[in-house]
Amino acid sequence: MTKVEILYQGFxxxxxxxxxxxxxxxxxxxxxxxxxxxNGVKTITELGTFQGCSTSAWLKLKPEKLLTIDIKxxxxxxxxxxAAKEINVDFKYIVQDDLTIDLEPCELLFIDTSxxxxxxxxxxxxxxxxxxxxxxxxxxxxPRFGTxxxxxxxxxxxxxWVEKYKDLNECGFLVLQKN
Length: 179
What we know:
Number of strands: 7
CATH superfamily: Vaccinia Virus protein VP39
CATH class: Alpha Beta
Strand content: 15-25%
CATH architecture: 3-Layer(aba) Sandwich
Low-confidence stretches: none
CATH topology: Rossmann fold
Helix content: 25-40%
Largest sheet: 7 strands, mixed
Radius of gyration: 15 Å
Distance between the termini: 38 Å
Structural class: alpha/beta
Order of helices and strands: HHEHEHEEHEHEE
Mean pLDDT: 96
């Protein structure tokens, strides 16, 4: 079994040691769906890495390049670097405020950061034009999370993005696809 598969299964089954499982939300239940929805995506940028649950799902897709960014260092970077190297994925982890960084173009932009209206809006204003196919959001259920007001505010001026998938189960998930 590859290191990526060990990480993926460990997050999916919630068996990895030293993980704050309460804080992973429902992402582990979405991991297989991500594999089906985004198979073939070559470049992924993830805003909001945290402990790496979604990161392991993105790695399992074997993109050519995966950039993941978080404002604090939560991720065990070495384990993920080793896993990415084993499957020839160009992996980079940056600890920085995502509103202060310039992103390169990517096919898929995943946003799972502060869950606050204004921050989400600013992320989209700054980075949405870098996504060529998908913008994906976790934690969209209102009023628990403030993500959707920021998305709606940005979206009304960006009709080229259409809803591909949305569910409001547990924490919620939204996929926008460029038309």
